[in-house]
Amino acid sequence: MRTIGVLTSGGDAPGMNAAIRAVVRTGVQNGMRVMGIRRGYNGLMSGDMFEMNLRSVSDIIHRGGTMLYTARSPEFKTEEGLQKAMDVCKQVGMEGIVVIGGDGSFRGARDLSLRGVNCVGIPGTIDNDIACCDYTIGYDTAMNTIMEMVDRVRDTTESHDRCSVIEVMGRRAGYLALHAGIAVGATSILIPEVEFDFQRDVIDRMRKTQQTDKKHFIIVVAEGIGGVAEMAEQIEAQTGVETRATVLGHVQRGGSPTVRDRVNASKMGNYAVKLLLDGIGNRVVASSKGEIVDYDIYEALNMTKHINMDVYKMAHEISI
Predict the structure, then answer these.
(1) Is the pLDDT confidence value at 106 over 90?
(2) Cα 1 to chain center, whole Å?
């Protein structure tokens, strides 16, 4: 395999640049031509790419976002879009692609692999919702960002004896909310995977802690639950505690990646290229029990990931 490409697709995540860096340097060091594909599958279909060298990826390991930019591409899901991508691959002589992104990105990688372009996926998403992977690229940084932001909100919450209802990212997955909620000592954590009763799990818990002379409260809510403004109104009406709603938003996606994200991303990028060097495609690289491993894309996409209920119960047991 002489020419490979690398792209980032879907939502950006801190650590993607570290993965790109590892892919490029591993490829170049092994005699490969490495093409940087801009704006994900859109760039692949349009041929928006450039040849990268060792210096193309200098001083990016500490930067958030992705130097290759990213996009979501409905057109790529169509047969016409796939054919455009295949035509570009043939023109450039690109025999393999490293795809950094989430489930949707891996489905695209699977479709290309079926048509003869070896693809290897690297999980890059702050939601940590890739079933085959314990820690996806960007998850650790996002958790630390949430922790820092909530700690700042707590300062004013405590000063005014308030309650803060804080929405964090996670439309279908509650990993960020659960683990960041533990880290900030949230009184209640609401996530999509666990049914909740607002009266029991928020109001009654607050009243119980009020009896122990606690006067300020943090409620962490995953994005998939939503309605934090309405929750804040209900809490204030029922408890008499002045309550504010805060949506952290896209600040969670940005920032310099943590050591864990930089190292994991570097390992995954290197591993992905080694697979392509051996002529192996249709794989997803993952972090499992502290090791870097790989799975068939079909197997990875069919896996399911579940919230650890022992951790969820522990979070609420120690937060009263």
Answers:
(1) yes
(2) 30
What are 111-153's pLDDT values in tens digits? Answer: 999 999 999 999 999 999 999 999 999 999 999 999 999 999 9
For residues 128 and 174, give the distance between their C-alpha atoms in angstroms, rounded to a whole number.
9
Q: What are phi and psi of 294, to 5 degrees?
A: -140, 150
Start-to-end CA span in the chain (Å): 58
The secondary structure of residue 156, as a DSSP letter, is: H
Exactly one of 12, 111, 127, 294 is catalytic; name it.
127
Q: What strands lie across the sheet with 163-168, from one edge to the other? A: 188-190, 217-222, 163-168, 243-247
Q: What are the contacts of 146-152 at 24+ separation with CB within 8 A?
A: 146/176, 146/180, 146/183, 146/184, 146/248, 146/252, 147/180, 147/183, 147/184, 149/248, 149/251, 149/252, 150/180, 150/184, 150/186, 150/218, 150/220, 151/184
Residue whose C-alpha is closest to residue 68's, from 56, 83, 59, 54:
56
269-294: per-residue pLDDT in tens? 999 999 999 999 999 999 999 999 99
Instruction: Find all residues with CB under 8 Å of 295, minimum gap 6, and list them.
Output: 132, 283, 284, 286, 303
Closest CA to 270 of 295, 292, 255, 254: 292
87 is catalytic: no
Q: Binning pLDDT at 50, 70 and 90, where does residue 30 land? A: very high
Considering Cα of 225, then 227, then 230, then 236, what sign does the dihedral take? Answer: positive
pTM summary value = 0.95
- Helices and strands, number each (H, E), in the chain: 12, 11
Rounded Cα gap, residues 7 and 125, in angstroms: 14
**Going by C-beta distance under 8 Å and a sequence separation of 6 or more, which residues neighbour residue 152?**
none
Question: Which residue reads 């522990």 in tokens?
Answer: 314
Q: Which two tokens stand for residue 207?
A: 């009243």
Would you say 172 and 222 are in contact if contact means Cβ atoms under 8 Å apart?
A: no
